[in-house]
Automatic annotation (TrEMBL):
Enzymatic class: ligase
Organism: Haloferax marinisediminis
Binding partners and assembly: Homodimer.
Protein task: Catalyzes the condensation of (R)-4-phosphopantoate and beta-alanine to 4'-phosphopantothenate in the CoA biosynthesis pathway.
Keywords: ATP-binding, Coenzyme A biosynthesis, Ligase, Nucleotide-binding
Identification of the protein by name: 4-phosphopantoate--beta-alanine ligase
Oxidoreductase is among the record's keywords: no
Annotated NCBIfam families: phpantohe_syn_Arch, PRK13761.1
Positions with a binding annotation for ATP: 19, 41, 182-184, 188-189, 200-201
Catalytic activity: (R)-4-phosphopantoate + beta-alanine + ATP = (R)-4'-phosphopantothenate + AMP + diphosphate + H(+)
GO molecular function, one term: ATP binding
Pathway terms, separated by semicolons: Cofactor biosynthesis; coenzyme A biosynthesis
Amino acid sequence: MSDIEIPESHPRYQSLLTRHRIEAGVEKGITSQQGLIAQGRGEAFDYLLGEETIPSADDAARVAAAHLLLADHPVISVNGNVAALCPEEIVELADAVDADIEVNLFNRTEARMQAIVDHLREHGADEVKGLTADGRIPNIDHKRAKIDADGIGSADVVVVPLEDGDRAEALGAMGKTEIVVDLNPMSRSARAATVPIVDNIMRAVPNITAHANALKDASREELEAIVAEFDAEDALEAAERAIRSSDDT
Ligand code: ATP
């Protein structure tokens, strides 16, 4: 992916880079046009958050890392925006916590599924799930319910960055520990999450990896204590406070 023509000194470098990647994703058949709208909504919240990782999001990323290290079968779900924005970072996180990667689309077409699988492989993924689609999320309409039975279907911990609210709620109802990355603390996805990380995926994914690497030698007891101390409601409230008042995080 070429991150061209944006001087790093530009005050809105990260934001422009993000837009460029999403645009390139649409051109490459990875990201849907709906993905452009999701990007716009995310950008607005990122602006209000000061385009930085707030302390409560950093805490949540550490808790997410602990969950992933404790998991029997963690799976990272990837959609068109995630694939366009941070494919390498997803592969690095999967390697750090020994997770599967599964493509999971709201607007599913076989062509886009395949394009995303190929794109992730180009960025270092060995195996990418999602094409078998022999499992279902209960109570979700047929097309959007498709998952791999040996992927998200049998996962105990799922990372769902930018998930749509319906599916996030349905995955929660399946009893999965759900780690959601979403810049909107009021979205249904963030509210359905076991661990909501209110941050841009471009910052949050590498941050979870960094925490996972730092916690790699931690005992089960230490990891369980990190998980037990976390309160999702507090994390969402801290993010809402940060949005309302830029110096009150
Ligand atoms: P709900 O979860 O309330 O049903 P939604 O699924 O309708 O909301 P969408 O319009 O599909 O929400 O938007 C996707 C979500 O992804 C938005 O909440 C937006 O803030 C978030 N988002 C977009 N880009 C990013 C990003 N780069 N990092 C993190 N979150 C993002």
